[in-house]
Design brief:
Blueprint (H helix, E strand, L loop, with lengths): L1 E5 L6 H12 L4 E7 L4 E6 L3 H10 L5 E6 L1
Antiparallel strand pairs: 1-3, 1-4, 2-3
Length: 70
């Protein structure tokens, strides 16, 4: 499954690293890619979208789910 979130408050490489670390800690995440230019976070794996969203929020950012592809 693939999940994507738009995170409008990503502004720098530190944001990217913080979000990657938070999302990688979620059970079921196989891969995470953060694109600073598009402000998209793409996740591959079986993690629940709510858990990924919570991890991004707990890291201090505001996720908006864009897609979930089964």
């Amino acid at each position: 499954m693939s999940i994507a979130f738009r995170v409008p408050d990503i502004t720098c490489e530190h944001c990217t690293q913080t979000i990657e670390g938070a999302v990688r800690a979620v059970r079921g995440v196989d891969a995470v890619k953060v694109d600073l230019d598009s402000k998209l976070v793409e996740i591959e794996g079986t993690a629940a979208p709510d858990e990924v969203s919570d991890a991004i929020t707990d890291a201090g950012y505001t996720p908006e789910q864009v897609t979930a592809v089964g």
